[in-house]
Amino acid sequence: MDILVSILFFVAVILFIRTNNFFASKHLHPWILPTAFAIKCGIGVLFLQFYIFQHEDPHLKNDAGAFYHEAQTLNTVLSESPGDYMRLISGIGANEELSVKYLGQTNHWDSGKQAIFHDNRNIIRVHAIIDLFSVGSIFVHMIIFCFISLIGTYLLFLALRKYSLLKPWLIFSLLLLLPNLLFCSSGILKEPLIIFGLGALAFSLVAKASKGKKIFFGSLGLFVMLCFKPYILIALLVAGLVYLIHTISPKYKLISALGIPIALGCIVIFVSPSTVEKGTHLLSRKQFDFSNVGRGGMHVRYEPDSVFYYFSPDQYSNLKVSGDSVWLKNEIDAWKVKLGDFASPVPVHIKPNKDAWQLHFVQPRANSFIEITSINDESKKLLTSAPKAIFNAVIRPLPNDPGGKLKYLAFLETLFLISLIGLAIFQRKKLTSKQRGFIVSAIVFSILLALLIGWTTPVLGAIHRYRLPIQLAIFCCIIVAWKPKIQYLNQ
């Protein structure tokens, strides 16, 4: 039944794309967008196979399966208490007590204070809404996410087309077919929404459209980025400041565009050092949590103090696990953390427990785990580790890095991207001042995002997925600057 519903839904979306005036572009063949959607859905099936069906339990506890299943858990609240359900699904009037009551056993919804904008909860909410009419088919979720990311790609195409000398089909193909962009934006994680948000913001700023459309897509893009990836929005705002300064500066545009934001940053450091300390601590905590997940380990809930103990895999021999219950057999050193809290993890010495702890989260060591420079709340380490962080986020994985066979595809993809950058540099057109400002701001955006990813992420597979906006920014620069010598590729 769910397969039939998925097929019918897929056909309905194809017909909608083919017949709706919004998707009618005189610069693209009428069947390019429906074909692109079909390609994305085909890749989406591979995404589900790789993340959920093929690996079962380990991956069901990770993002792709967890968001989907926790959304189904959320929807069970509807029959118990429609009022509580509306508070949870909207976030209006909801509190932590309500979350604990209905969703206290979940891993991703129960994200605590760290999730300032609750991006995990927001993606679960999206899946919960889709689940109301998907008749339990995960393929319907995938189809909708593919459609959302296709809209984002199309909006980005509309924004870039008039600034490029490339053929429209080539612009759209570059935005669609890079393996990482295509694979991640065809799944059921946050990336399709990121693509939509970036495309909507770009369309609202530079595309030829009515004022109403620009306001609509600009507001929607800001809302989506704020809900699902606020740190990308922060990097975008800084890049926007760089572009604005470059545009309004009468002379020395590049020096002004880079120098003024750096000067403002230095002023903030000297005037409000506590802000730097808080930011460093947040990055340290994110790094600690991600490193624990990457190394593998077990988190157990200790109810009386509402805290969690973390045990590394080499400590498992000291634990007895039965279902969701955990007992400690020998005295041991571990870490005590408060889920979602900003407080630093505390080393503790634990004695065997009589009452069982509740197993909250357990995961094996990631195949592509790498050691990164530990920040440990020291802001100086952010500076000293910056080059390595950027290298990890932009270049790795390398062929000799840990990981599975997909690392070779990621490495080839990076080489392809570097080759395109080289072509765009040596076959560049004469850029206008605004185009140079755009490229400078895109580079600033990429560096900021690379630092955030490289500082906090010790898993190369995750790094490759997280750097999708960086790759997209680089592609936009290539599309704007490149004038190929092959005339067939030029307008």
Tell me what the structure shows.
The chain has helices at residues 2-19, 32-53, 57-60, 63-75, 77-80, 82-90, 96-103, 119-131, 138-160, 168-177, 179-184, 191-206, 211-228, 230-248, 253-271, 273-295, 379-384, 386-394, 406-426, 433-456, 460-466, 468-481, and strands spanning 297-302, 307-311, 319-322, 325-328, 332-337, 346-350, 357-363. The chain is α+β, with helices and mostly antiparallel strands and 491 residues long. The chain folds into 3 domains: 2-206, no CATH class; 264-280 and 373-489, no CATH class; 297-363, no CATH class. The model is unreliable at 55-61 (pLDDT under 50).
What's this, in brief?
The protein has 491 residues and is an alpha+beta fold.
Number of domains: 3
* Overall pLDDT score: 86
Contiguous runs where pLDDT drops below 50 for at least 5 residues:
55-61
Q: Cα-atom Rg, whole angstroms?
A: 24 Å
Kindly state the percentage of residues in helix.
Answer: 55-70%
Query: Beta-strand level of the residues, as a percent range?
Result: 5-15%
* Strand neighbour order, sheet with most strands: 3-4-7-1-2-5-6
Distance N to C terminus: 47 Å
Net shape: globular
H/E element order: HHHHHHHHHHHHHHHHEEEEEEEHHHHHH
Q: Main sheet, how many strands, which sense, barrel? A: 7 strands, antiparallel
Number of helical runs? Answer: 22
State the total count of DSSP E strands: 7
Structural class, from secondary structure content?
alpha+beta
